[in-house]
Amino acid sequence: MHTTVLEVGPRDGLQNEERALSPEDRIAFITRCVEAGTRRIEAVSFVNPRRVPQMAGAEEVMAGVPRRDGVSYSGLVLNRRGLDRALAAGVDEVNVVVVASDTFSVRNQGCTTAEMLDAWDGIAAAAAGAGVPAGVTIATAFGCPFEGETPPGRVAEIARRAADAGAFEIALADTIGVGVPAQVRDLARRVREAAPGTPLRYHFHNTRNTGYANALTALDEGAATLDASAGGFGGCPFAPAATGNIATEDLLYALHRSGVETGIDMAAVADTGTWLGGLLGVPATALLGRAGPFPS
């Protein structure tokens, strides 16, 4: 069995850290991921650098990443200006975030969910015209810090709208780390029904120590791709008490020991997580780098 692990550390992993890394350091991070065997990387975010200063210099990063056959770099965009920047920078795919709760959407993106879906329609059409695949990440799919429980029917309707506009994949994101495996199973089935045939990607945070269980449940439900961040860094700067993503190296350990192939060197990623913690001045939350693999 094989599954794809999408490395989100260069974007989601860095956007909430106090220390902003230089474009050169971010290129070095991405290069380490590629050399470890990672083939999908969320490299940059084309958002206003005044709101997310850690993501400044996206064009410089894209100009310096290693271009290898089979390696795909995605960029996060929220509007047409961001899309234009992403296309000019040479991204291989575009990731558009649609937040499932209005309160968080307004705080995070300055528009309601319905307004963001309208923007998605335009972004999707323009990206298709440029020959670049565009996908949707449904944020706060498992719960919102301001509105509480996210109605699963709302998530399914956003997925249907995303698929209707041609999303090449749909990601369900547990932005604040409140989801549990039962929710993963329920949402997976609802979204498959709403967007039949569209590959599903999952993005989990380990805020309440359920991220890895959720990832393995998503795998059982047919996940095409799982997001993870080297070292376990990450979080949303607009979500109170947000903590890190599931760690790539710890997820790889669970996958590889379960007989799932990823093509990624687990030990190399663990070394990268430790290296990244040194750059950021905070220790990685990943455990594999401390405990080591088994068998050793």
How is this structure best described in words?
- Belongs to the HMG-CoA lyase family.
- Keywords: Lyase, Metal-binding.
- The chain has a single domain, classed as Aldolase class I (TIM Barrel), CATH 3.20.20.70.
- The protein is built from 12 helices and 8 strands.
- It has helices at residues 9-13, 23-35, 58-64, 80-89, 102-109, 113-129, 152-164, 181-194, 211-220, 248-257, 266-280, 288-291; strands at residues 4-7, 40-45, 72-77, 93-99, 134-139, 170-174, 200-204, 225-228.
- α7 (152-164) links the parallel β5 and β6 (170-174).
- α2 packs antiparallel against α11 (266-280), α3 (58-64) packs parallel to α4 (80-89) and α8 (181-194) crosses α9.
- The radius of gyration is 17 Å and the shape is globular.
Give a brief rundown of this model:
This protein has 296 residues and is α/β, with parallel strands linked by helices.
Domains (count) = 1
Radius of gyration (CA) equals 17 Å
User: Under the CATH scheme, which architecture would be assigned?
Assistant: Alpha-Beta Barrel
> What's the order of the H and E elements?
EHHEHEHEHHEHEHEHEHHH
| End-to-end gap | 23 Å
CATH 4th-level superfamily: Aldolase class I
Strand content: 5-15%
How many beta-strand segments?
A: 8
**What is the molecular shape?**
globular
Spatial strand order of the main sheet? 1-2-3-4-5-6-7-8
Give the helix level as a range of percent: 40-55%
Kindly identify the CATH topology: TIM Barrel
CATH class, named: Alpha Beta
User: What is the overall pLDDT average?
Assistant: 96
Q: Biggest sheet, in brief?
A: 8 strands, parallel, barrel
The secondary structure category is: alpha/beta
Enumerate how many helices there are, as a single number. 12
Low-confidence stretches: none
Pfam families: HMGL-like
Family: Belongs to the HMG-CoA lyase family.
GO molecular function, one term: lyase activity
Protein name: Hydroxymethylglutaryl-CoA lyase
